[in-house]
């Protein structure tokens, strides 16, 4: 017999928490607000609380109420800017993952959370609470959580697809959420460097290509250029639905007609951007949300032909290793789906993966090269040299597949900023990356 979910207040739900518990706040826009604020008021009364989350979009009351991290330990599988700041303050910790594997982690390796609490849209006529644009591993959380609490939020977009909701029979408690706008991700204007990189990538996108667009100015600039191009029948199979993809669709470039998997549908696992993105996905049958182990696993990605994967990195060495998530020992983001989409694109018939980066950056008033002889001490390799295909800066594009170490070094030096090429070549010779006599 199905259990009956009880409607209670956020304060009553927070009263269920005991010291030492593991709590899970779900993902991105689905992290709870009313429960979070009610629980923050109990800190000190309850202590040693551990939370899992991903990509925090708004400040968390429990963290703001515990600036010395005496009561709360925060674990994230991918940092937002907010998570990064809390990590810098010693209040948050990174959990290394390939994002597409996380549902399996919950089912096989992670102890069941004591309480799972997340936002949903109000219950529909079939008795389902929709996860909104946060499908990811929510089904696995519901399966594993000892207590499941949903925070009904009227402003959360209702999304279509598979694995997008939880039935009332699977829920223990229902609490009222806030009627407030969703958090938005500011869209930074494209720089001239972004545009230069985007032009090189856009020229490689063919009619009928299936796109994965990562987060950042360069991928968004690619979308803008493609929207103005004559390319047609593009498909979307991506991790994150972005503003740029909406713009590309509205320009008439996206039909999904040539996709082998989910033809005619834009497929993703979460969305984050401006309000017009949230309005676009709300009950839109052309956009399908799926669990992340469907969108991100390479053997699924490669089922579409001509997959084009576009991602950012922050540093690449002369052998082709990309460090995309750290600045030395400082963690700044996460592996996310980058490596899985690089591999999925390679396995796709006619597929291409692009790793893009500006040639330089400023640090402590000094201009530095992002293409380096060796990665910064402490930097984590996100995409190995063996997986690297196209690398793009504002100075050009090179393909590293099938190239020796010496050929890679020469190719990457050719797209470094001109002010650093001589030094890079000298270092490459000194460290025998380019051997003597190599033409």
UniProtKB/TrEMBL annotation:
Keywords, sorted A to Z: Transferase
Annotated ranges, domain Acetyl-CoA hydrolase/transferase N-terminal: 7-176
Source domain of life: Bacteria
Acetyl-CoA hydrolase/transferase C-terminal domain residues: 273-428
UniProt-listed InterPro entries: AcetylCoA_hyd_C (IPR026888), AcetylCoA_hyd_C_sf (IPR038460), ActCoA_hydro (IPR046433), ActCoA_hydro_N (IPR003702), NagB/RpiA_transferase-like (IPR037171)
Keyword Transcription regulation recorded: no
The keyword Transferase belongs to this UniProt entry's keyword annotation: yes
SUPFAM superfamilies attached to this UniProt entry: NagB/RpiA/CoA transferase-like
Database matches in Gene3D superfamilies: 4-hydroxybutyrate coenzyme like domains, Acetyl-CoA hydrolase/transferase C-terminal domain, Glutaconate Coenzyme A-transferase
One Pfam family hit: AcetylCoA_hydro
Family: Belongs to the acetyl-CoA hydrolase/transferase family.
The protein's name in its UniProt record: 4-hydroxybutyrate CoA-transferase
Gene source species: Rhodobacter calidifons
């Amino acid at each position: 017999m199905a259990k009956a979910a009880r409607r209670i207040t956020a304060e009553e739900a927070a009263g269920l928490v005991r010291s030492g518990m593991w709590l899970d706040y779900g993902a991105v826009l689905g992290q709870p607000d009313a429960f979070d604020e009610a629980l923050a008021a109990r800190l000190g009364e309850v202590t040693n609380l551990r939370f899992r989350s991903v990509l925090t979009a708004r400040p968390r009351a429990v963290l703001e109420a515990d600036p010395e991290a005496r009561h709360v330990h925060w674990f994230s599988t991918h940092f937002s800017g907010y998570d990064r700041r809390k990590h810098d303050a010693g209040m948050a910790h990174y959990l290394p993952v390939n994002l597409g594997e996380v549902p399996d982690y919950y089912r096989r390796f992670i102890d069941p959370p004591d309480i799972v609490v997340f936002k949903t849209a109000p219950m529909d006529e079939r008795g389902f609470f929709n996860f909104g644009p946060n499908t990811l591993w929510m089904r696995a959380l519901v399966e594993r959580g000892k207590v499941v609490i949903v925070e009904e939020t009227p402003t959360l977009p209702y999304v279509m697809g598979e694995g997008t909701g939880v039935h009332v029979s699977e829920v223990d408690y229902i609490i009222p959420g806030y009627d407030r706008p969703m958090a938005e991700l500011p869209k930074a204007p494209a720089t001239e460097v972004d545009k230069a990189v985007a032009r090189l990538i856009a020229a490689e996108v063919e009619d009928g290509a299936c796109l994965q667009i990562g987060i950042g100015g360069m991928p968004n600039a690619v979308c803008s250029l493609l929207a103005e191009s004559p390319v047609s029948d593009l498909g979307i199979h991506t991790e994150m639905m972005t503003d740029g993809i909406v713009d590309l669709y509205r320009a008439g470039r996206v039909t999904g007609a040539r996709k082998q998997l989910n033809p005619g549908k834009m497929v993703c696992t979460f969305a984050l951007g401006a309000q017009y993105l949230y309005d676009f996905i709300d009950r839109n049958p052309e956009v399908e949300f799926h669990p992340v182990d469907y969108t991100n696993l390479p053997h699924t990605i490669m089922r579409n032909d001509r997959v084009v994967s576009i991602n950012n990195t922050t540093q690449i060495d002369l052998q082709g290793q990309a460090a995309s998530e750290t600045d030395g020992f400082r963690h700044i983001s996460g592996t996310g789906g980058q490596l899985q989409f690089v591999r999925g694109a390679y396995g796709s018939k006619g597929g291409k993966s692009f790793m893009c980066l500006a040639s330089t950056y400023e640090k402590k008033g000094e201009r530095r090269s992002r293409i380096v002889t060796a990665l910064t001490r402490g930097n984590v390799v996100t995409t190995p040299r063996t997986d690297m295909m196209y690398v793009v800066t504002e100075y050009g594009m090179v393909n590293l597949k099938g190239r020796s170490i010496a050929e890679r070094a020469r190719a990457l030096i050719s797209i470094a900023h001109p002010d650093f090429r001589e030094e890079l070549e000298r270092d490459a010779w000194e460290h025998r990356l380019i051997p003597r006599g190599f033409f």
